[in-house]
Design goal:
The complex is a heterodimer of chains A (228) and B (442). By secondary structure, chain A is mainly beta. Chain A contains two helices and eleven strands. The relative contact order of chain B is 0.17. Chain B starts with 17 loop residues before the first helix and ends in a 16-residue tail after the last helix. Chain B is an alpha/beta fold. In chain B, the strands form five sheets. An eight-stranded parallel sheet of chain B has the order 5-15-14-12-11-8-7-6. In chain B, strands 1-13 form a two-stranded antiparallel sheet. Classes of the chains: A mainly beta (228), B alpha/beta (442).
Chain lengths: 228, 442
């Protein structure tokens, strides 16, 4: 397994190596040591490569991941797995702001807590957070699923479109046009699938509440102006 | 003989003029602010307020059509491994598929390609037609991230991180439901028929320090190949330019308030942002102060209409310009041949700006298949190419008259100003004097 030591290897070498993998390449598993909070680690992956990162990373780790499996054995800075297309990103520790922002696909698993704006503008990504999430999470969330085993902060799902939110703990407050919705069988089924994919065995779908869009702000109406 | 006291003639208020009162009545009747396309319609100091001096005893001219006046420009020389070189410094500004029809986007790509320049995507992502018909395509990285994906980043020739635009610095966009066709809805991953908001700020960075890291990420994803532009609206051009340089931009795109938009509140278009003329010198000053003039290229947009405007922008220090509204006019927007239909929409050719409603008789700002089919992308592309070539020739004509063998050699000393305002904004002397406001010696 090729190992990149970021204490003595330029970031550019790591990322370009991850991009050059043609189908059937021999090396499909990489290890990154001494990331020491580096930004943009393992970004733009475009093949089903596995990357193990030993330590904490800075901004935008695994950004735009398309098919890779990236595990951070530490915590992640802002924008982890931003705009992910497909694949899996696992954060063993905590994640900072904007985790999974604008993600279009794939699975982001955060085993600790996530800070504010988790899943902001999400467009199809699935995010599972074992801990709690901060304020304004799933703001303008378009599609995909956000599963939170702990609590959610203020203004959850503000101005949400069709993203589906599941929270096991408490929600401090809901944002504009976000409401609690009925948990139907298909939601329980999807939730069970996501918990299993995330490797979580100690939570049952029935313990969660579902939140989503009231769809009252979908077309502009002046009488809704105080909601904006 | 009786005496009649003379009547006081009816007098309308300058403050509450007809247009103002009509807008008050419209607001009262509808309960919604006026949304429209295009840029500011108010008169602001502009390139018309500047003149070139031409040659004289101390400056000799170049022979028209005989002595070479180069127009090429290379963008992205600071960091990008693959800078782009254009035959003309007149580029096509970002306009979205969604706001524009597929045929209109294709026409822009065709015209730009014939003329040897670049075109730019917009909110909503890159279409195959656009990529296919554009030899050099700039891919916008916008707050909404609609349609954003790494494959398109890699097949772009440059990336433009949009922080703001001149028509609405600080504002996001709104594509109203009537323009959300199945294809547009699918590209943006939103339900059909709803009003689609484009966010006003990026979801995963705030401020210049974050932006620097965001640009690092984009460079790493694209293996440092692509020139990265930062586009800002005309708000604080000195500081925005300096911060864009600090954040690692290869190119700064500066869009004044005459720059157009697909749809924004009229109050925003007319009251926020600075005229293009007022933006250029502070931006160039920032580049010069940082020792980056010509190293980080400056593209100026907002109200560029002719080769004279191009030459004036470049004389003030721009490396290139971008056109949006003018390009749409060239391919057929607001053409009087559709006057009868404009009348039915309650407007007239030359004034039509309800681009957000999707009913454009010219088939440009619409997603209606029947209207869109009115625009022949091949013929419209040819018109755009003709227009770009005329503008380039015009700019060359002026540059030669000033004795310049490259448009980039035009300089502020080639200009004078017709008004105090223009003299102050462009920092070139009022015609017939050696003085401009702010310069010592008044």
């Amino acid at each position: 397994m090729p190992t990149f030591d970021l204490s003595n290897t330029p970031l550019r070498d790591l990322n370009s190596a991850l991009h050059r993998l043609s189908a059937g390449a021999n090396d499909t598993a990489f290890e990154v040591v001494n990331p020491r909070g580096s930004h943009a680690v393992a970004v733009g992956i475009d093949s089903p490569v596995k990357v193990e990162i030993r330590g904490s990373v800075g901004y935008y780790c695994a950004g735009m991941n398309d098919g890779g499996t990236v595990t951070v054995h530490g915590s992640a800075g802002p924008g982890v797995a931003e705009n992910m297309m497909s694949g899996t990103v696992v954060i063993e520790g905590d994640a900072s702001q904007y985790a999974g922002a604008t993600g279009q696909g794939g699975l982001l698993v955060i085993k600790g807590n996530a800070a504010s704006r988790c899943g902001i503008s999400m467009k199809g990504i699935d995010i599972v957070v074992s801990g709690s999430i901060g304020h304004m999470s799933a703001f303008m969330g378009q599609s995909g699923h956000l599963v939170v085993l702990g609590d959610a902060g203020d203004a959850l799902g503000d101005s949400i479109y069709e993203a589906k939110l599941f929270v096991r703990g408490t929600v401090k407050s809901l944002g504009s046009d976000c409401i609690e919705k009925e948990m139907r069988p298909e939601h329980l089924e999807k939730l069970a699938e996501l918990l299993e994919k995330a490797g979580i065995a100690d939570a049952r779908p029935e313990e969660f509440k579902r939140f989503g869009s009231a769809r009252k702000l979908y077309n502009f109406n002046i009488d809704n102006a105080d909601a904006y | 003989m009786s005496y009649h006291n003379p009547h006081t003639p009816p007098r309308k208020s300058a403050t509450f003029d007809d247009a103002t009162m009509a807008e008050i009545r419209r607001a009262a009747a509808t309960g919604i602010y006026d949304i429209r396309g295009a840029g500011t319609k108010r008169k602001v100091p502009h390139f018309d307020d500047l003149l070139f001096l031409g040659a004289s005893i101390s400056r000799y001219p170049l022979e028209g059509y005989r002595e070479k006046c180069d127009t090429t420009v290379t963008l992205g020389t600071r960091f990008a491994r693959k800078p782009i070189t254009l035959k003309t410094p007149i580029t096509i500004a970002g306009m979205s598929f969604g706001a524009l029809s597929g045929n209109a986007k294709e026409a822009l790509g065709r015209g730009a390609t014939i003329a040897g320049t670049s075109t730019t995507t917009g909110d909503g992502g890159m279409t195959n037609e656009e990529r296919g018909h554009s030899q050099t395509l700039v891919y916008q990285y916008l707050p909404s991230r609609y349609g954003m994906n790494p494959r398109d980043l890699r097949r772009a020739d440059a990336i433009e991180v949009v922080v703001g635009q001149g028509a609405k610095p600080g504002g996001g966009g709104m594509l109203l439901g009537q323009k959300i066709s199945d294809r547009v809805a699918n590209m943006r991953n939103l339900p059909k028929g709803i009003d689609q908001r484009s966010a006003c700020r990026h979801p995963d960075w705030t401020g210049p320090d974050d932006l620097e890291i965001k640009i690092l990420e984009l460079r790493e994803i694209t293996d440092w190949e692509k020139p990265i532009y930062i586009k800002v609206g005309g708000a604080r051009p000195y500081y925005d330019t300096a911060l864009a340089v600090k954040a690692g931009a290869d190119v700064v795109v500066l869009d004044g308030m005459q720059g157009g938009t697909a749809a924004t509140q009229d109050v925003f278009i007319e009251n926020v942002g600075m005229p293009t003329l007022a933006c250029i010198r502070p931006a160039v000053q920032a580049l010069q102060d940082l020792g980056m003039h010509r190293k980080v290229q400056l593209i100026v947009s907002g109200g560029i209409r002719s080769g004279a405007d191009v030459a004036k922008a470049m004389a003030l220090g721009a490396d290139a310009v971008a056109i949006g509204t003018a390009a749409l006019v060239a391919i057929g927007d607001n053409d009087p041949k559709w006057e009868a239909e404009y009348q039915k929409l309650g407007t007239t050719a030359g004034a039509y700006d309800d681009w957000h409603e999707g009913k454009d008789p010219a088939g440009i700002t619409t997603q209606d298949p029947e209207l869109a089919a009115r625009l022949d992308p091949v013929a419209a592309g040819r018109r755009l190419a003709n227009y770009l070539k005329v503008m380039t020739l015009e700019a060359q004509t002026i540059a030669r008259a000033c004795g310049k063998n490259h448009l980039h050699n035009l300089e502020p000393e080639d200009l004078c100003a017709l008004t105090m305002e223009a003299a102050a904004m462009a920092q070139v002397p009022l015609a017939g004097t050696s003085w401009y406001p702010g310069k010592a010696g008044f």
